[in-house]
Description:
The chain is of the alpha/beta class and about 290 residues long. The protein folds into 2 domains: about 50 residues; about 230 residues, Rossmann fold (3-Layer(aba) Sandwich). The chain is about 45% helix and about 15% strand. The chain has a 7-stranded mixed β-sheet with strand order 3-2-1-4-5-7-6, with helices on both faces. The relative contact order is 0.11. The N terminus is likely disordered.
Amino acid sequence: MALRMIRIRAAATLLLTALVVTWQVSSAIADSASTSSAATADQHLQTLVAGPQRSDKNRVRDIYRHPYETLTFLGLRDDQTVVEIEPGSGAWWTEILAPYLHDHGRYYAAGPANDDSSAEAVSSRQGFAAKLASAPALYGNVVVTQFDGDRFDIAPPGSADMVLTFRNLHNWIADGTAAPALRAFYRALKPGGVLGIEDHRGRADQPQDPKAKSGYVRQDYAIALIEKAGFKLVGTSEIDANPKDTKDYPAGVWTLPPTLRLKDQDRAKYLAIGESDRFLLKFVKPE
């Protein structure tokens, strides 16, 4: 009887060991497949960041804007539906996002409303349209929508995995349209969808100018504003930090490159500082 019990226990031990080994192997295979898939996606993005479709004028700013690091921090995948707000005539991010999302995802470019007749809006619409027309193979799948606060759907409601906006929040604060803009983003996103916002970071030792006339926005002010709209902060990044930026210039943030509003006045000084210190914030629309 004792010998039989020993044999049963030994068999049970062998069976348990086999199950554990099988699970570990299966888990390792799954992890390897997941890692391989992520690496492929990353390679795709890296290739496009370094790709010939990007203009030299845009590429030279990578040292300040860090496109690969920014997009991977925000969790971009090439099968997502992504909305970029006000891509502009220079199409800085479009040169990366449109080809990245071309085959498996969808890219919405939400630009100025068609009834906005300001010179800036007309220039933006015309310049962006010309960019898309210049390479239909790359940009033929781009869906152009209108953006003006919450007047329009920037994408079908609840369809977007990600909404991206770069250095625009200060403008909406200045003209009093930040709240409706955030409502439009919230409406477009799926539950769990990501809102990525980058802007010029204001000094924490000074009160926020309610009109953001200098172009700078305190990070804590931005977070409070966006959370008030219903979003949840899930990450911050120092990718675009610039400790040389003292944020106290005669023409605000536009004193610095790339604008260099003072032209040749102290040009070398401002070029040495570089582009502005910026926050990068990642929010989600709650499930």
